[in-house]
């Protein structure tokens, strides 16, 4: 199955307690594209960049099998730029700069070669832009996965509700789930979010893992305890990318397959945080990936007699 990704392709400048970077490659769609290439899933990105974006980064995506035909280049424009600084616990960060640049008037264009994608992953963007992508697809994809954040709840509530109503799987973090539902309990929050549309609700809890809710069933996974977390940027996007790519690979959207997809997404995200930006993710080999999934299995499997 083919995966269509819509999201930012960006420059990031990141500061963590361990160091800082100048402008490096970032953007939600970039992390998602690289994650799907690790699973050898056919994917394509729809995004927009400026004339300042290096051809070498586009070539890197192409060489990994990511279709970049849908990345529009506005020669006289500047690429989206985000800068963030992490606090000492690495769980929270302050956004220092957001220069929306060419993303301001983003009008997604879906190349004919990606129109038949079965899975659509809508990265965190204005819900109006996300909705326009669905409208532009000749046929509704079999599975629509949505990533969003509190910023859109504050600034575009009604449009976000329309988008959520058309979504099959929503991924948000715990605080955002509480804000979206008005419920503190994540179980109650998931129920309310189900009622808004999505059959599957994924709540990410950072270093505490993630929860998957469907039809009264809950599946929980921890995050892999890592010796070193260097830079959490892109962990959520990598998670979503690994999750979606696994479903594309298995060509199945059952709860059981989604449970495995959650593990794969988390395993991939555990690589992203080990170095700045996309650096570590770009190095991941298939055998490393398999070893990490096995670590997850060892971490979470137990028998108990009662
Ligand atoms: P995450 O750490 O998973 O939240 O994602 C970080 C990535 O999101 C960075 O690479 C940024 O370039 C990108 N990003 C940050 N803010 C925005 C925004 N407002 N719209 C689109 N992408 C963004």
Write up this protein:
The structure is a single chain. With 306 residues, this protein is of the alpha/beta class. It contains eleven helices and 14 strands. The chain has helices spanning 28-38, 55-63, 127-136, 150-155, 157-165, 174-181, 186-196, 235-250, 255-272, 279-283, 286-300; strands at 3-6, 10-16, 19-20, 24-26, 43-50, 66-74, 81-86, 93-99, 119-122, 143-147, 169-173, 200-204, 210-214, 217-221. β12 and β13 form a beta hairpin. The mean pLDDT is 96. The structure holds adenosine monophosphate. Residues 8, 10, 12, 26-28, 82, 98, 124-125, 233-237 line the site of adenosine monophosphate.
Ligands in the structure?
adenosine monophosphate
Structural class: alpha/beta
Name the helicity range.
25-40%
Q: Work out the strand percent.
A: 15-25%
N-to-C series of helices and strands: EEEEHEHEEEEHEHHEHHEEEHHHH
Rg measurement, Å: 18 Å
Uncertain runs? none
Largest sheet: 9 strands, mixed
Number of H- or I-type helical stretches: 11
Q: Strand order, biggest sheet? A: 6-5-1-9-10-11-12-13-14
For the record, give the distance between the C-alpha atoms at the N and C termini, rounded to a whole number. Answer: 43 Å
Q: Would you count the extended β strands for me? A: 14
Task: Report the mean per-residue pLDDT as an integer.
Answer: 96
The gross shape turns out to be globular
Summarize the structure.
The chain has helices at 28-38, 55-63, 127-136, 150-155, 157-165, 174-181, 186-196, 235-250, 255-272, 279-283, 286-300, and strands at 3-6, 10-16, 19-20, 24-26, 43-50, 66-74, 81-86, 93-99, 119-122, 143-147, 169-173, 200-204, 210-214, 217-221.
């Amino acid at each position: 199955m083919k995966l269509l990704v819509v999201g930012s392709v960006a420059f990031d400048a990141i500061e963590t307690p361990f160091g800082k970077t100048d402008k490096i490659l970032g953007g939600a769609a970039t992390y998602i594209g690289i994650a799907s290439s690790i699973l050898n899933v056919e994917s394509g990105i729809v995004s927009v960049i400026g004339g300042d974006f290096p051809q070498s980064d586009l070539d890197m995506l192409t060489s990994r099998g990511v279709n970049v035909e849908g990345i529009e280049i506005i020669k006289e424009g500047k690429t989206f730029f985000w800068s963030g600084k992490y606090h000492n616990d690495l769980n929270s960060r302050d956004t220092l700069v957001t220069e929306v640049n060419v993303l301001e008037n983003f009008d997604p264009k879906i190349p004919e070669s990606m129109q038949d994608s079965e899975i659509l992953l809508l990265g965190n963007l204005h819900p109006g832009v996300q909705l326009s992508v669905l409208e532009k697809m000749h046929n509704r994809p079999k599975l629509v996965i949505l990533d969003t954040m509190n910023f859109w709840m504050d600034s575009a509530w009604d449009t976000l509700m329309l988008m959520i109503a058309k979504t099959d799987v929503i991924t948000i973090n715990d605080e955002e789930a509480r804000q979206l539902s008005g419920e503190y309990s994540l179980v109650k929050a998931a129920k309310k979010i189900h009622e808004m549309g999505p059959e599957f609700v994924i709540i990410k809890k950072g270093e505490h893992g993630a929860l998957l809710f469907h039809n009264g069933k809950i599946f929980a996974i921890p995050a892999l305890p890592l010796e070193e977390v260097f830079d959490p940027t892109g962990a959520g996007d990598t998670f979503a990318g690994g999750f979606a790519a696994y479903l594309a690979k298995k060509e199945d959207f059952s709860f059981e397959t989604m449970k495995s997809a959650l593990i794969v997404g988390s395993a991939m995200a555990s690589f992203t945080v080990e170095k700045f930006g996309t650096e570590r993710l770009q190095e991941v080999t298939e055998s490393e990936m398999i070893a990490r999934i096995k670590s997850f299995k060892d971490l979470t499997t137990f028998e108990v007699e009662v």
